[in-house]
Amino acid sequence: MAKAYWVATYRTISNPDALAAYAKLSGPAIAAAGGRILARGLPAHVYEAGLPQRTVLIEFDSVEQARAAHDSPAYQDALAVLAGGAERDIRIVESV
Prior knowledge:
With 96 residues, the protein is of the alpha+beta class. It has one domain (4-94): Alpha-Beta Plaits, CATH 3.30.70. Helix content is 38%, strand content 32%. The chain has three helices and four strands; from the N terminus they run E-H-E-E-H-H-E. The chain has helices at residues 16-32, 63-71, 73-82, and strands spanning 4-13, 36-41, 55-60, 86-94. Strands 2-3-1-4 form a four-stranded antiparallel sheet. Helix 1 (16-32) packs antiparallel against helix 3. This is DUF1330 domain-containing protein. InterPro entries: Dimeric_a/b-barrel (IPR011008), DUF1330 (IPR010753).
């Protein structure tokens, strides 16, 4: 089974306090679902049409595990805390 990567980019962060509260809940929720945060923060460098946006990269053992983590009650609680505090783009990509 191929690993999967959850890639989140933050287009805007309008409420840093909501983001901090989200981080306190989301990290444990993701870890409990089998996710491993590999990288987070601003890019060290961007190329081509890249944007200097906060990016988070999380590894899972499968696409199904990543989807289950996102849909879990614990992660949904974290999302409720973030509501309106940031505009994000989340993608789940299967490894090759």
